[in-house]
Queue: 4 jobs
Job 1
Amino acid sequence: MRRCIMLLLSTLVIAGCSSSAGSGASADPFEPAASAAMEDRAADAGSGPGEDTSGAGPASGEGNAAPIEQRIIKTGEVSVEVANVSAAVGSVRAFVLELGGYVGGSQAGSGDEGATLTLRIPASRFDEALERLRALDGEVVVEATRESDVTRQLIDLGARIANLEASEVSYRVLLERAERIDDVLAVQSRLDAVRGEIEQLEAQLQEIEGDADLSTLTVSLIPIAEPIAAVTETWDPGVQLDGALASLVGIGHGLLNALIWFGIVWLPVLLVLALLVLLALRGFLEVRRRLPIPAARDVPPA
């Protein structure tokens, strides 16, 4: 019995690894419960019935595949120059509620400096929201929109979750059959790991579906810059007199600063140099005075 349980556990581990890699087949030895769980999840994710999810028999659908609903995530950014930012913010908040959405976040400066709003709007009314923004009392300076098709991603996530749920059902059956403590712990460990993967994938699925249901629109409201009036220069004698006096005072300050620097820094140096020159000149004259004067030669008469 223990060998049989370990063999089935190994088979389920391999099947779980295959489903994590994106495989649509299930190596579940308990096919009825596994197939039912996989078909329910695939139908919820938008996949058509009739796909072979058990990997052990022909398709069980009626032959007519249900149409797959296309899921698209819409996002956009709009910048509008408005005369009154506060009034524009109130208008945006009002029409977002009318469209069945809400303001997911906002950021506004002090006074009338500008504001940024993050709007969550039903995807079916995304274009209507853009029209309402264009109708604001202002000018649209930036408008950008993007669309991302996530249909295949949702189908893949649904299939992976279905495979993991089928494995979870099989692990629970093994857990009921296990008799030894080692077998119970091994199966419970794998069961907890599979449950963790399911919850993680379900969170991703819900996040993507939420973004597809509610589009995100970032709106920047910018105040219109007031025109700068041209400044005409006029001649004023008083201004010219003040400028001349300021220049004169500046020149006086410069001369005074120069005298201070000269008196403190250069004057002592110049005095020392002058003293050295005087001492050298005095010594030279003293030496010359002590030298004998040569006698004058008699010049014979011609």
Job 2
Amino acid sequence: MDFHHIACNYNHMGIVATLKLPEDSPNVVAWQRHLPDGGFLALLPLTQGFSSMVWSMNAKEAKRVASLSEDAFVDAINDALWKVQPRSGFVDQATQTFDNLIRFFNLPSTSMTQCPPKVLGCDIKSRAMFPLGIGHATNYVSKGVALVGDAAHRIHPLVGQGVNLGFGDVICLNKVLAEAVYAGSTLGNLQYLKNYETERQRFNVPMILVVHGLFQLYSTQFTPVVILRSLGLQATNALTPLKKFLMSQAAGLRPQQA
């Protein structure tokens, strides 16, 4: 089998853990906060009172945080979620001016802020750490073999697309194999497997490049860039059709499925 792989290491680590939240509050919202060091902390609801966390940070700091006691680890998470970070006055002025413009046109505003949940504890056995980067196989298939999911591509968890890309691979491969069987061919027929490779690479490669670009965009605190990305988020939230389109793409849906 002749598979080639292109990769780029970010020198960042992702810390994952299962967190305990208050049981008397609905746990139906996913949270993500971008941090001044270029990392981010995201919470994904699991069941009532529990969420899954991924926390991205530079490798040196990740090793320190991963070694904290449970109480200190939980305190660090709450600090990252709740601490008021210093902001540039230029950024605040630009976003406020743009928000006023949005309100003038009666579009959805982002001025209302929701508060993240308070983390009460952590399943210590669930805590783990892994390196972050991007990677992509230049070819997904060989005779009788097809790569799917992380075997074919690796992506930063910034927008939570890793598992969606993997699911999309499986759905597409299943469709292609069904077509091969229906046509009386074998499952390992390279012609049909190439159809899978072409379709998935057309979707996966742009997504990987977009996420790589977002990682670079949020890794800088250069004021003009911060202003542009902040205004971009406000504009996306205000333009409902654009927001729905981006959400459907993130979910791996085609326009007719959205």
Job 3
Amino acid sequence: MWGSGFTAIEIGLESLPPVLFAAFRFDAAALVFFALVVASGARLRPRTRDDVRLILTTGVLLIGVHFALLFLGQNYVSSAVAAIVLSFAPIVTPAIALAALPSHRVRATDALGLLVGFVGVAAIAAAGGSFGGRLAGVALLFGAAVAFALGSVLTRRFSRTLPLVSLQAWSMLVGAGILHAFSLVHPTEALSRVDWNGGALAAIAYLGIVCSVGGFLLYFRLLERVGPADASLVSYATPIVAAGFGAAVLGEPITSAMVLGFGLIAVGFALCQIRPLWRLVRGLRGPRRRPSATETVRVRGNEYALEEPTVERARVGTGEGYGPSRGGGAAPDPVADD
């Protein structure tokens, strides 16, 4: 499902205003998540200020702002280009962390990865040949990547007591509210502009249920089975899957600029993730050892502690599992990986 969501966005944009479309997606996702909370008996009510701050940060930045810019940007570019530009998010995260977190240190490989990744985004944007159309879309998508990276960094400040499934439910409700608020004040996002048809309804259902809810459950099952270092490789697969679906379903071309841009962004990502990737390579070359209580890995710009008791207790949908090593916070949000 990772990557195929960009094709669903492209289909839905033919009938739905972009931001209102995103709002409908998270209306559907929030309803399903609240149903999962009730069915599982998980605690729904936030208990601490950090829980509330985490819900607001995730809902406003990781869902509201991020997806508003994503859906607006994809109006101008292909689904493959959108996926490639969004893969810049984990590369820009260390630079944002340096400004937002006083204790954070940026390594030389982070700086080099940021530079190489930015060149990759520029290569894709330059292929548009003008300041309209494609370049505008790339700029909006770049903003979406930055919003996601900023939200990911800010969540490190908060200690979470709320189960993850409940956090997702509240965050998607807040995000949907932000998106609806924007659509209410923008004339091009009026409900009267919606063309209700089978394609629009299918796109909303697929994105809301399969990508947002299914992506969440599958991603945390993947974390439980293989660990964050291996799961981070999903970031490589998403643009490739998006390009494949776009070409097969929509007939979108795969250009040399897209291949070059993705290659540079992938190199930048590898430079930023060089330590967990090196641990992964070493693990493939020898027996897999159990992580120590103090070992950390970085996934999509966030650091996670691999504590032995936590791994044993991990259950998908219960809110237990891998937690950030710096005072809690949200796990990387799988809803951003369409």
Job 4
Amino acid sequence: MGKVRTKTVKKASKIIVEKYYNSLTTDFDTNKKVCQEIAVIPTKRMRNKIAGFTTHLMARIKKGTVRGISLKLQEEERERRMDYVPEVSYVDEIINKGIEVSEDVSDMLKTIGFGDLKQVTRVTHGSSAPHYQKRRGNKSY
């Protein structure tokens, strides 16, 4: 079973991680010393709980982003990903490779005036409906 962490412990840990991220690690003992130096925590038990949750948060941050904690490093990385524009879009790559359509779709394209598209190739498979296997066994449903 997991331990219950109070709102006080969680809030204090989140604030410590946001402000002092560079001096924290995934080691409990070093985080305990950092918490003792930077914050006024009334009891040893409370300090240990905060240091433990801080260590837990640091391990989660190492794996990926953590909800509720905004680090400048994470924000910069997110902005870099959002600003990235590929040279050729994925949709353009697929269109340039060619699109295979069934006879029915090809006929529909012709009726609306798009029958002469170069990238579209007509495929004759018999039927475009999914092919299902028959059930095995003698069960009656």
